[in-house]
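Job type: complex structure
Entries:
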Amino acid sequence: MEAFYTIQGEGYHSGRAAYFIRLGGCDVGCHWCDVKESWNAEDHPLTSIEEIVKMAAAYPAKIVVITGGEPLLYNLKPLTQLFHENGIQTFIETSGAYPLSGDFDWICLSPKKFKEPQESILPHVSELKVVVFNKSDFAWAEQFAAKVAPQARLYLQPEWSKADQITPAIVEYVKNNPKWQISVQTHKYMNIP
Ligand code: SF4
């Protein structure tokens, strides 16, 4: 759908320069989704993996973040292999709704209630990032925290449109449950993509 060089705004790698690749296509259906234009893959012309890697390699940061849409709708093995052959690290942001494919240096799972993640991805998760829309999401987040690998980093992130209302509850939750950290969408404050 699009690709752009920017700063990762969220989660463990927040603040780092990275090349973002947004794949078209998603059927998860989050009502608060901020990239609904990504949902229909047919709206977005195909780009060869060679072209994608060539564009990414032109930038100084040797990190790509593959996001969507839901990137695991596709077999990501050929794309991630080609990145690695070019000395570029591969990170993914996924809901986990489809089977994991590809070779990744960092896997950020952001599970969605609308289409729950596949159990098979849970042992491979580097970072669990749960978007919090209301207080019931804390219990939901804990279900996944109990199932991911013990070394996975745990983040609670306020849903952007609800941030003013829900952030105080997240602050209190993390103070009481310090295995979690807070992730905020810093790119939105910086007005960058
Ligand atoms: S999984 Fe991501 S792209 Fe898909 S609907 Fe939810 S927020 Fe939007």
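Summary: Residues 26, 28-30, 33, 35, 38, 68-70, 95, 112 surround iron/sulfur cluster (CB under 6 Å). The helical segments are 49-57, 77-85, 136-145, 163-176, 186-190.
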